[in-house]
Amino acid sequence: MKGLHVIGVSHAYGDHQVLDGASLIAPAGELVCLLGSSGSGKTTLLRLAAGLEQLQQGQILINDEVVAEPGLHVPPEHRGIGLMFQDYALFPHMTIIDNVCFGLFELPKDTARRRAMEMLDQVGMTDHAASYPHMLSGGQQQRVALARALAPEPKLLLLDEPYSGLDTNLRGMIREETLSVLKASGVATVMVTHDPEEAMFMADRIKILGDNGRILQAGRPHDIYYHPEHEFVAKLFGLMNRFESVVVGGHVETPLGRLQAEGFEDGLKVEVLVRPEGVILESNGAGQSAAGAPLEVVSTHLLGHDNIVRVALTGDDVAAGERDIYVRIHHTFEPELSQRITGGIDPEYAFIFAIDEDGGILDAPDGRN
Amino acid sequence: MVELTSPFKLDYEDLDQDHQRLADIVNLIVAAIDADEGEKCEDLVNDFVKSAKGHFAREEALLTKAGFPNVARHHAHHQSLNTKMEHLVEFAKNAADNQLARDSLRKELVFFLMDDVITADMDFKTFFEEQADKGET
Q1: pTM
Q2: Is A218 an interface residue toward B (CB < 8 Å)?
Q3: Is A139 in the B-facing interface, judged by CB distances under 8 Å?
């Protein structure tokens, strides 16, 4: 099958194990994001695929050809890969067209220039062919970098945090353009990012790397967001409300109501993580509470499309640390400070994980409510 | 077209046969999608899911018998695939008259087979090799 296969790769720098049996596939035409925090080994995995590091354990194949295993190292220039980094790495002394032609040295000059112009056309940069990199904005340089990476028609494109140098508005636009160009090219792409939103936007499949150098979960963006199998994965997407509980009769009680705990043994201590958008606020519109846990509005913060509302549980039997609850609601709903309101949980946004007596995380059967 | 080349062989006949059977079904599903015969997908995907579950059970029994040290972790991994299999079935149900469902089915089947099943099983390739060296399998 065309694309990249990484099988059981382990890698250490001295005593520090950065990858531990990591595997991934990136079929032709698909984009796989490696998502993890700094130091999780995602860039190392990319460098191993590129051939910029010698493989210590495992196997790497590109288009069914083994390019790396212990004792075998096909050099980067013979792997048919394109690379794109955060800093664009354009040659400052070359024009844009010459930058794109750089990787086409095996083609006759006229053919190379024609191919380079085609690529610049794809990224909307033909008008800047004679310019130098310093004359372009960051977004334009990024487009040129993409054209240069794709010009030699690589079997595999590797992107390392390619948008982190761009401001928020430009990043959104450029990544959408990039995605469209990549899909049209049909190249297998692996992108490293620490930005979960970026991974959700770009990826056909996301691979989450934990701090232990192991792949914690792989799946569609939908799987990762709605069915996290690990506490680390659930928490990647920002603020979570956390409650501790014990499984009784296949259920757990939280201050916001009862949830099913399918697959967990009775008596097991668990934590319940609830996304802010999974807390449902209700009011009968007359300042009186509907059914649900009693809450009081502490603060509201407008984030554009949404409001983040902090509410406090008003009951006496609430555990320390569980009193404040964060809620994400549509911006048109603006509860007043000190307003009494009620709240419940949408189970689709609630995840249950087994914990030990000290609150430390254990393995969960399937990680979701 | 999914082809299981030598790097994806465990050199353990029963499991390699299981993988090949799964790959064959995936290829039939992809062929049906390419031939615009989405209505064939539901039965084929049901067969795929049944075969996958049978494979997981056989594999876990075999690993337990052979003394593989990470059986519990592999079992948990198999359990985690249940939701993905439900999604595959859902895509297949809609494949007859929905292009998006067909596209999603094709994409997710390949990832499921190659990434979640076969590549994940490479975890115990070394174990089997060591067992074979000892003459235990």
Answers
A1: 0.88
A2: yes
A3: no
Q: Does A1 contact B at CB distance below 8 Å?
A: yes
Q: For chain B, give every domain's residue range.
A: 13-134
Q: What ipTM was predicted for this assembly?
A: 0.86
A227 chain-B contacts, CB cut-off 8 A: 83
Fold classification of B13-134 (topology level): Four Helix Bundle (Hemerythrin (Met), subunit A) (1.20.120)
The model's confidence at residue A160, banded by pLDDT at 50, 70 and 90, is very high
Residue A112 Cα distances to A31, A117, A199, A223, B67, angstroms: 27, 9, 33, 42, 58
Give me the half-sphere count of Cα atoms (radius 13 Å) on the Cβ side of residue B26: 25
Write out chain B residues lying below 8 Å of A25, CB-based: 111, 114-115, 119
- Substitution target in B79, B104, B111 with the highest count of A β-carbons within 10 Å is B111
* In contact, B108 and B87? CB cutoff 8 Å: yes
pLDDT (0 to 100) of residue A365: 40
Where is pLDDT greater, at A304 or A33? A33
Q: Which are the contacts of A6, defined by CB distance < 8 A and separation ≥ 6?
A: A22, A23, A24, A25, A45, A48, A49, A58, A59, A60
Q: Mean pLDDT, chain A, as a whole number?
A: 89
* pLDDT 10s digits, A99-119: 999 989 889 999 999 999 999
A223 within 8 A of A236, measured Cβ to Cβ: no
Name which of A140, A154, A136, A146 is nearest A100 in CA terms: A146
Helix axes B13-34, B99-111, angle to 10 degrees: 160
User: Taking 90 as the threshold, does the pLDDT of residue A164 lie above it?
Assistant: no
Maximum Cα–Cα distance across chain B: 54
d(CA B43, CA B40): 6
How close A25 gets to chain B, by Cα (Å)?
6
Give B6 to chain A, closest Cα distance, Å. 10
Helix B82-93 vs helix B41-66: crossing angle, to nearest 10: 160
More confident residue, A146 or A292: A146
